Q: What sequence folds into this?
């Protein structure tokens, strides 16, 4: 596998200060995020937990330049979200796989080669075969999305997001609709990918267990308006390389801690 | 409770038997009940017209076919193009779409004499009427189809910094195809209706003219033959659309 490590461990991937985000214009806006301060180290794996309406997905959308903040500042990879999006340094994985049903699996993975090349200064290689192999989908290239299971579709979506070798991968409850066994398996695959690539990952989830297992750090947001209520460094509970067992008492204790924060936030 | 599906052989045989039973009843029961032939000629009498007056039928099929096909092509193309314009320019859509909808409420039979006044008596007014009939369903369906991509799909394309053209070509258009084809299927029948209505109002050629002449002259076997032919024309167009649809949409 030739995914390069982007990580510069001293660098900062995301820095938000007093970030306000809302819908409905600057004056009559409903605030979804209010005064959020957040710094994310490059190459880290951040899990974002919170009740519905706390602005978890909204935060990802601001980072991806899909939504403009109402106030405060945000810098992504040392630049504006717009510049980062234009350079295609960011990949996005949605809860529903968002595969185009008329394209084969391979052509879905290759979508980033077909669109948005105009704004690019670097060449993107066609690594679709390699990525399909990596995601355990070798031999599935010619299938259509409806011929795949939910877990396979989500693998295709991840392969598509990785094709452009993004420095930042934003994942919005990507495994939320999957059964538990498939979800656990994909969690492990995602961690293996992350270790190899050094990509910074922001992972939004509803599941405390998933957040704790995946994240080097877990933040909990509260709703109305969305704000940071808990920031937990998971590295003391884990071995090198963000490895842990789901049954490890330390992890279970951390999960209880997160649950308490989440209950207060809801 | 849901019923079990029929075995395949039966699923084909039953409609054939159903049609045969109706034809049989039509052929033997109606004359026996004393229904006069000038009201309902028997199927064999209608078939006889196809043998006797084949060149007459074919000669009248031809103009209707051309008018229906041309109207189908022009009306649907206009509907698709206007839909593309409307979804890319919301100001134009807000200003003109209600007016277009208002025009759609005018019955085609009321509109036809005006079209005749403008375009005269040749093939053109029939093509225009067929086109007008095809235009509205395609316009409305195409607008809905082009707007049917989910917000996640649009966000995916935005994350990839896709241009408007790329969003149109790789997302909006493929998303719109199923809806476009469902209106094309409707249009395949209505285009023939449009051509025939046009021929009713002012023509001496075409299946519409043949229907009017035959009914004025009490040639009901010829009238029925013209009806069978026009419905066959719609069916052939419909099947053609379905065939193209199956090649275009594989998912």
A:
């Amino acid at each position: 596998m030739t995914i390069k490590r982007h990580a510069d461990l001293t660098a900062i991937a995301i820095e938000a200060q007093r970030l306000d985000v809302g819908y409905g214009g600057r004056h009559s806006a409903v605030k979804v995020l209010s005064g959020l301060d957040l710094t994310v180290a490059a190459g880290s794996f951040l899990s974002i937990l919170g009740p519905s309406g706390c602005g978890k997905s909204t935060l990802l959308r601001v980072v991806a330049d899909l939504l403009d903040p109402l106030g405060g500042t945000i810098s992504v990879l040392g630049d504006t979200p717009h510049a980062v999006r234009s350079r295609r340094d960011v990949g996005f994985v949605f809860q529903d796989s968002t595969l185009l049903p008329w394209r084969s699996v391979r052509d879905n993975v290759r979508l980033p080669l077909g669109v948005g090349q105009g704004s690019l200064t670097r060449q993107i290689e066609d690594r679709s075969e390699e990525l399909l192999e990596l995601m355990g989908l070798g031999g599935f290239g010619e299938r259509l999305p409806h011929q795949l299971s939910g877990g396979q579709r989500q693998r295709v979506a991840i392969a598509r997001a990785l094709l452009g070798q993004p420095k930042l991968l934003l994942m919005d409850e990507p495994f939320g609709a999957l059964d538990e066994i498939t979800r656990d398996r994909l969690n492990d695959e995602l961690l293996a990918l992350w270790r190899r690539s050094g990509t910074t990952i922001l992972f939004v989830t509803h599941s405390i267990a998933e957040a704790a297992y995946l994240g080097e750090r877990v933040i909990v947001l509260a709703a109305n308006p969305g704000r940071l209520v808990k920031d937990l460094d998971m590295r003391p509970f884990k071995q090198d390389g963000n490895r842990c067992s789901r049954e490890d008492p330390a992890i279970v204790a951390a999960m209880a801690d997160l649950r308490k924060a989440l209950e207060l936030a809801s | 409770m849901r019923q079990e599906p029929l075995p395949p052989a039966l699923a084909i045989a039953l409609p054939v038997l159903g049609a045969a039973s109706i034809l049989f009843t039509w052929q033997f029961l109606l004359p026996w009940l004393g229904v006069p032939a000038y009201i309902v000629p028997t199927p064999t009498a209608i078939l006889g017209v196809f043998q006797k007056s084949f060149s007459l039928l074919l000669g009248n099929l031809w103009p209707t076919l051309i008018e229906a096909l041309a109207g189908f092509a022009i009306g649907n193309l206009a509907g698709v193009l206007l839909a593309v314009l409307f979804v890319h320019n919301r100001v134009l859509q807000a200003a003109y779409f209600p007016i277009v909808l208002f025009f759609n409420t005018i019955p085609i039979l009321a509109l036809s004499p005006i079209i005749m006044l403008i375009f005269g008596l040749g093939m053109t007014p029939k093509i225009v009427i067929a086109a007008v009939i095809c235009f509205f369903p395609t316009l409305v369906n195409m607008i809905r189809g082009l707007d049917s991509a989910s917000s996640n799909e649009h966000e995916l394309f935005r994350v990839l910094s896709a241009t408007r053209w790329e969003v149109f070509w790789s997302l909006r258009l493929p998303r719109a195809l199923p809806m476009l084809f469902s209106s094309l299927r409707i249009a395949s029948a209505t285009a023939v209706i449009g051509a025939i209505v046009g021929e009713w109002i002012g023509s001496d050629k075409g299946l519409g003219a043949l229907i009017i002449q035959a009914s004025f002259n009490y040639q009901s076997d010829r009238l029925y033959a013209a009806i069978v032919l026009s419905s066959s024309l719609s069916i052939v167009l419909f099947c053609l659309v379905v065939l193209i649809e199956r090649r275009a949409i594989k998912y």
Observations:
- The two ends of chain A are 42 Å apart (CA to CA).
- The first strand of chain A starts at residue 12 and ends at 23.
- Strands of chain A lie at 12-23, 30-41, 45-49, 71-76, 90-93, 168-172, 200-205, 217-222, 227-233.
- Chain A touches chain B through 27 residues (CB under 8 Å).
